[in-house]
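can u pls check wat happens w/ MTE
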Amino acid sequence: MLIRKSQDIDSSEITPKEVYLNRRRFIQEAALAATGLASAALTAELPGSRHANAGEKLQFRKSEIGIQGEDMTPFKDITTYNNFYEFGTDKSDPARYAHTLRTIPWTVSVEGHVKQDRIYDVESLLKMHPSLEERVYRMRCVEGWSMVIPWIGIPLASVIKAVQPTSKARYVAFQTLYDPKQLPGQRRAVLRWPYVEGLRMDEALHPLTILAVGLYGETLLNQNGAPIRLVVPWKYGFKSIKSIVKIRFVDREPPTSWNLAQPREYGFYSNVNPEVDHPRWSQARERRIGEFFKRRTLMFNGYADQVAGLYSGMDLRKYY
Ligand code: MTE
């Protein structure tokens, strides 16, 4: 796979956001009206499409937020070494099996303590921010590996501000699609399905927190959580929930999948912290995918300057 950075891409090759949005909307409407077969035929006509709308070029601006000076993990590794238990527990399973997920049409229900419960398509959510942004983030999995990923997305804060939660909203709960036909791993009770996650409101509003729809300048492949997923770079990877269909504003700390499965091992906060080990794995060091030697894990995954203030006064051993 040839990977081109955005500056190498002739602007005529880039799909303007409006065209992208309109095309997706056209496809969605057509898909809604037609049979699965017809919609598959339509999406297959998209230039560069892999499955559904995945892999289409996006227009974006480079954000000043994020990291610089670290090598980005190759596209191949980001898209073939995944955790997406809805497709199996092996790192290679998502890339092999995620083609069964249909990402067009796709809607996200926004509900709970919010001005108005409403169902949005992905395009309507993206329009809540002026443009798509590229954010290069260091990502750290609790299993001890890490990657550097050039995400494309918008700040979650823009969506939150646009939908206007009420004063009762103290946390944001997220939910992945539940459909064992499309997500066959949900037939096995490895986790309680659907996958759920949550953030405290100030974490959700933090400028580093994004809803991602792409990486390396293209729409997300299914294995990375298409069509829309959360990315919270100072927390272990499992907080970054994939293929979101519901965002609910709540007044209490919402349940999270890994905490439900193993509460002693996975807390609600799950901030990257080299000083607090997981019961089975030290968190002091990590292996950057593609590198041989391990490197030190940084407090809050290297984003301490930006996020440490969110947790001042909290005992991070207790609130792990
Ligand atoms: N979201 C869902 N719905 N299901 C999952 O199994 N795995 C999490 C997170 N989001 C997971 C999920 C874990 S453990 C990690 S490390 C990241 O996704 C991996 O994201 P990536 O495969 O895009 O690198």
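Confidence is low (pLDDT under 50) at residues 1-23, 25-52.
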